[in-house]
């Protein structure tokens, strides 16, 4: 099929996907009585939401917290998941058992785990700290990363590993010098996905960050939701401000991601 | 450097070494961090969860006294909860399947179009980045029966108004659509990545055999993608089972119990009516069910992976 | 007082501990830590804390965050103590305060609570007993606190666990322009209200809706809708002895009245929460709305309202054979001291400060606070009349009468959950009004033993 035809096919889908997003932008420009005006666009552009949002909540602080938590969590997740995925992909039965265990741990919804984890964080002095949020969010995403990375490792031809082994490298050596460089795009892809997950994580952030100074953006968004008279306009502003930098990150990472992905795809 | 199960004994001949090398080469210690993580993040909460499930426990006073299976009985006697198990399963399967089909289609189209996602592809990723709470709010307002943009637009072109969130089936399907809208990009991203990995030789061989676009897709590309598709499906399946934010924001489980999924019900039981013991029992029942469904998919994937070797 | 891991005297505690202990090495540390207890020292009722330079951490209901900014300034000016305010969504407030104390985190000195959670918090060891403190501080002037809210908000098992802060009630807002256009009178009874709803919705052919029925099945939304009719028809949730009386004829008539209104309401009641209700009223799309008193401020704000000077309020209508109007204590908040606070005297001093006559009037004077009167004297203060305008008489009437009290014992959250679940089924047409309330009644009886 020609490129133009495909573009013509994809464009409407992209537009359809974009409707709710356009609507969020439009919400950010509406006054309260204009929210349900029956149209996609504001009847009258109401700019005041933008300065008002920055006045009402400490948006830069929430944004910074979200980035710290998401980035820290990704680092932790990958530090655990990369060696683990090498193991699950290569250690045969024991590896498959571990993979199943990882999957099993992902099946339980985390609501009730909030209670024991709360004790854990308090005991270690990490309650109400960004470090505590990094820890729980990072651990929570390990299963996703292991599952994705496992496929990338399996794509690496075993012969390459054998050669490295004959050169006298051990498990960690093979991982570091052979596997890691080969699955780098996979690491970027999984990292990116874990970043999104961590960036939007709500339950833990809501439970383990009591003070405003450590609250992440999703918590701030949920606070808008917790008002009886919801300020949709401001909520939309905060969302857009939160999404924009992540989107730029995604676009930047995409190039690197896709460029190398042909080397080792998910499997 | 710590070595695990398979270390190389000294003095092996080169031939034997090569044969041994076909065995997995990996240090047992590489599994140590994830094992520790599982213990802390899953093992310990699980023990606590079992403790809660077997005792009279409220949020303020957990582990009061032993009640045996009472909490499980409460959970299984509660029609909303037992119904939620079915709803969650249906939701997870429908949403994950929808995302897989649409996502794979989009990824194929994108990959055929160019070897870069480009701006168009980037646009497709946006829903994934948008905070779930805002996603729910936007959809809810779009679909508002009075003053929502959807009905406003329908009225402009002379079509009758709709209110999908007003009836049981409509609300359920709306949530499936929203979840699909938000997570299809996840599938696009990963399947697109996997597609780029299809070896050129495979394609060429198929084309030499005279395979057309369709044959190439069905007999070469899709089988190659199968393990990746199953892994992505599995992740979205479990993700669908755990759906919470959009239920909370868009329908609050209603109308009636039509969209009350298990995670929403567990949250309600634990953090709104504070019956933590019952909520723990519900969590265990639910997790076993999710585990069972996930295991089936995981086994299928394992077979696909092995078949490829 | 620390939280015991097991209630003392539990015969199977050893068995349980053994079962839990086995294979639970990872759990042991944190579990034990949980019962290690770091509760602050008991509150000294006569203590005179030095407040200067102290910072109190306060857990606050999000919609009241503005009110606390006002309080913070005056508290600081008067005592030198500062507040660190943590707002939480209204539906997370109770869980958050319980978790904070249960986990031993102890992040807060002062806890704001919805009175429905009183029993949960008191029995759960979250709130400090303030009985002796209140007795030792006659300047609190408890005689001036509105009797209709003082007990429901703070009295559990004969002890006082806090002081009222915001005496929330619902009133009925209606769009005068729409009522005039269809030659309707201000509704006095629920029958009037329903008739008006039907007329407006029918005659306007979908351009307007006669009423907004907030039916999203969470207690603070659907619960209010039902409670408002229940009190209008002369019904109650619980009798004097705390036994459920929900299967009464009054209750059934009340529910039937809501169900009758539903077909003429903004579509559809079950999906209507605050987020759809308020814009519908403020844009002039719908004619009647039961809501909190602070809504009047928003309705008069030209920036966000198209109904400025086109609305009025009445006290909640009556229904059936009942002719005596009364209001329902929908929401309503009090302040208490956390058992884990390390500055209990200072915290109690702030609770007292916030409940004082002067501060209550200052809250009322500022229309952005959203706070309502908690004192008899406030109802007769000129500032009240000035701020509440046309709503003042209606609010005063409601609060000085004997309003409907929601359950507030330790089981209350559970009871309300059952209630709204069953009400939703009735809205869906899956069960009749009587059948619905009989089911709720027997579920409540079972829970309350």
TrEMBL record, chain A:
It is a multi-pass membrane protein. Keywords: Cell membrane, Membrane, Transmembrane, Transmembrane helix, Transport. InterPro entries: BP-dep_ABC_trans_perm, MetI-like, MetI-like_sf. GO terms for cellular component: plasma membrane. The keyword Transcription does not apply. Pfam families: BPD_transp_1 (PF00528). Residues 63-253 form the ABC transmembrane type-1 domain. The chain crosses the membrane at residues 67-86, 98-121, 133-153, 174-199, 232-253. GO terms for biological process: transmembrane transport. It is found in: Cell membrane. CDD domains: TM_PBP2. The keyword Nucleotidyltransferase does not apply. Belongs to the binding-protein-dependent transport system permease family. This is Carbohydrate ABC transporter membrane protein 2, CUT1 family. It comes from Thermomonospora echinospora. The lineage of its organism: Bacteria, Bacillati, Actinomycetota, Actinomycetes, Streptosporangiales.
Automatic annotation (TrEMBL), chain B:
Keywords: Membrane, Transmembrane, Transmembrane helix, Transport. GO terms for cellular component: plasma membrane. It is a multi-pass membrane protein. Residues 85-297 form the ABC transmembrane type-1 domain. Pfam families: BPD_transp_1. It is found in: Cell membrane; Membrane. One of its GO terms (biological process) is transmembrane transport. The chain crosses the membrane at residues 29-54, 90-110, 117-139, 171-195, 216-238, 279-300. InterPro entries: MetI-like, MetI-like_sf, Sugar_ABC_transporter. SUPFAM superfamilies: MetI-like (SSF161098). The keyword Transmembrane helix applies. It comes from the Bacteria. Belongs to the binding-protein-dependent transport system permease family. This is Carbohydrate ABC transporter membrane protein 1, CUT1 family.
From TrEMBL, chain C:
Pfam families: SBP_bac_1. It comes from the Bacteria. The keyword Transport applies. Residues 1-33 form the signal peptide. Keywords: Signal, Transport. The keyword Iron-sulfur does not apply. InterPro entries: Bact_solute-bd_prot1, SBP, TAT_signal. PANTHER family: ABC TRANSPORTER PERIPLASMIC-BINDING PROTEIN YCJN-RELATED, ARABINOSE-BINDING PROTEIN-RELATED. Belongs to the bacterial solute-binding protein 1 family. This is ABC-type glycerol-3-phosphate transport system, substrate-binding protein.
């Amino acid at each position: 099929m020609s490129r133009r035809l495909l573009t013509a096919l994809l464009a409407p889908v992209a537009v359809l996907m974009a409707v709710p997003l356009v609507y969020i932008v439009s919400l950010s420009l509406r006054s309260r009585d204009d929210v349900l005006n029956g149209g996609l666009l504001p009847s009258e552009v109401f700019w005041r939401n933008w300065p008002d949002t920055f006045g009402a909540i400490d948006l830069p602080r929430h944004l910074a917290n979200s980035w710290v938590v998401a980035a820290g969590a990704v680092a932790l997740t990958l530090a655990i998941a990369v060696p683990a995925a090498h193991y699950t992909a290569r250690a045969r039965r024991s590896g498959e058992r571990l993979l199943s265990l990882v999957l099993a741990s992902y099946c339980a919804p985390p609501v009730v785990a909030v209670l024991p984890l709360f004790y854990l964080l308090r005991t270690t002095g990490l309650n109400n700290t960004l470090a505590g949020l990094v820890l729980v969010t990072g651990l929570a995403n390990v299963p996703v990363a292991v599952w994705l990375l496992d496929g990338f490792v399996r794509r690496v031809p075993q012969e390459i590993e054998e050669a490295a082994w004959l050169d006298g490298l051990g498990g960690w050596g093979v991982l570091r010098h052979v596997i890691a460089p080969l699955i780098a795009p996979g690491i970027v892809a999984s990292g990116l996905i874990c970043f999104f997950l961590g960036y939007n994580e709500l339950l833990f952030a809501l439970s383990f960050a009591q003070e405003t100074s450590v609250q992440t953006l999703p918590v701030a968004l949920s606070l808008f939701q917790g008002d009886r008279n919801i300020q949709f306009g401001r909520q939309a502003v905060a969302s857009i401000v939160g999404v924009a930098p992540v989107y730029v990150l995604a676009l930047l990472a995409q190039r690197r991601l896709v460029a190398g992905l042909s080397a080792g795809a998910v499997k | 450097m710590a070595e695990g199960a398979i270390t190389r004994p000294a003095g092996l001949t080169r031939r034997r070494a090569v044969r041994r090398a076909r065995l997995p080469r990996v240090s047992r210690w590489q599994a140590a961090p994830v094992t520790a993580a599982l213990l802390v993040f899953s093992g310990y909460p699980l023990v606590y969860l079992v403790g809660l499930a077997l005792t009279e426990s409220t949020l303020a006073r957990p582990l009061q006294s032993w009640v045996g299976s009472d909490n499980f009985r409460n959970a299984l006697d509660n029609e909303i909860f037992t119904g939620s198990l079915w709803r969650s399963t249906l939701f997870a399967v429908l949403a994950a399947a929808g995302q897989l089909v649409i996502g794979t289609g989009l990824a194929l189209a994108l990959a055929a179009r160019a070897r870069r996602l480009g701006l168009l592809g980037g646009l497709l990723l946006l829903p994934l980045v948008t905070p779930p709470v805002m996603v729910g709010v936007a959809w809810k307002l779009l679909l508002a029966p009075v003053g929502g943009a959807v009905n406003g637009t329908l009225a402009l072109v002379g079509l009758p108004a709709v209110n999908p969130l007003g009836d049981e089936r409509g609300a359920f399907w709306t949530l499936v659509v929203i979840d699909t809208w938000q997570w299809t990009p996840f599938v696009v991203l990963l399947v697109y990545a996997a597609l780029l990995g299809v070896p050129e030789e495979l394609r060429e061989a198929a084309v030499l055999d005279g395979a057309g676009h369709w044959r190439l897709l069905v007999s070469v590309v899709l089988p190659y993608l199968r393990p990746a598709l199953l892994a992505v499906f599995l992740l979205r399946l479990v993700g669908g089972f755990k759906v919470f934010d959009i239920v909370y924001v868009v329908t609050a489980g209603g109308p009636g119990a039509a969209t009350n999924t298990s995670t929403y019900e567990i949250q309600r039981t634990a953090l709104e009516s504070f019956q933590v013991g019952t909520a723990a029992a519900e969590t265990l029942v639910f997790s076993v069910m999710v585990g069972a469904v996930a295991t089936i998919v995981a086994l299928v994937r394992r077979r696909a992976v092995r078949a490829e070797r | 007082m620390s939280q015991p891991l097991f209630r003392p005297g539990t015969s199977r505690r050893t068995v349980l501990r053994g079962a839990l202990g086995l294979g639970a090495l990872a759990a042991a540390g944190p579990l034990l830590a949980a019962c290690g207890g770091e509760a602050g020292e008991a509150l000294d009722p006569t203590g005179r804390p030095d407040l200067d330079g102290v910072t109190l951490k306060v857990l606050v209901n999000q919609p009241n965050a503005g009110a606390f900014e006002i309080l913070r300034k005056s508290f600081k000016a008067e005592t030198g103590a500062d507040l660190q305010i943590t707002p939480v969504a209204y539906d997370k407030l109770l869980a958050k305060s319980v978790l904070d104390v249960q986990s031993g985190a102890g992040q807060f000195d002062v806890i704001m609570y919805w009175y429905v959670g009183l029993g949960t918090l008191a029995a759960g060891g979250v709130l400090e007993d303030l009985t002796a403190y209140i007795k030792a501080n006659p300047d609190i002037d408890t005689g001036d606190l509105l009797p209709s809210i003082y007990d429901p908000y703070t009295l559990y098992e004969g002890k006082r666990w806090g002081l009222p802060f915001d005496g929330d009630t619902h009133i009925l807002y209606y769009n005068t322009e729409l009522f005039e256009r269809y030659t309707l009178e201000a509704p006095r009874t629920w029958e009037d209200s329903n008739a008006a709803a039907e007329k407006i919705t029918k005659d306007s052919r979908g351009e307007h809706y006669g009423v907004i029925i907030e039916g999203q099945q969470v207690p603070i939304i659907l619960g209010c809708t039902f409670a408002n009719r229940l009190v209008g028809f002369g019904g109650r949730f619980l009798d004097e002895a705390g036994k459920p009386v929900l299967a009464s004829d009054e209750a059934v008539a009340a529910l039937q009245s809501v169900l009758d209104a539903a077909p003429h309401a903004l579509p559809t009641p079950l999906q209507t929460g605050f987020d759809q209700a308020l814009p519908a009223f403020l844009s002039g799309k719908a004619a009647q709305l039961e809501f909190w008193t602070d809504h009047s401020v928003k309705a008069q704000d030209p920036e966000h309202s198209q109904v400025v000077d086109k609305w009025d309020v009445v006290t909640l209508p009556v229904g059936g054979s009942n002719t005596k109007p009364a209001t329902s204590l929908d929401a309503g908040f009090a302040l208490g001291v956390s058992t884990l606070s390390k500055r209990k005297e200072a915290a109690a001093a702030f609770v007292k400060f916030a409940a004082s006559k002067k501060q209550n009037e200052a809250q009322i004077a500022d229309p952005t606070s959203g706070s309502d009167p908690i004192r008899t004297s406030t109802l007769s203060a000129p500032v009240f009349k000035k701020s509440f305008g046309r709503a003042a008489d209606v609010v005063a009437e409601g609060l000085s009468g004997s309003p409907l009290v929601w359950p507030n014992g330790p089981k209350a959250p559970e009871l309300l959950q059952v209630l709204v679940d069953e009400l939703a089924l009735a809205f869906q047409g899956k069960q009749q009004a009587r059948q619905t309330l009989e089911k709720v009644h027997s579920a409540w009886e079972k829970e309350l033993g």
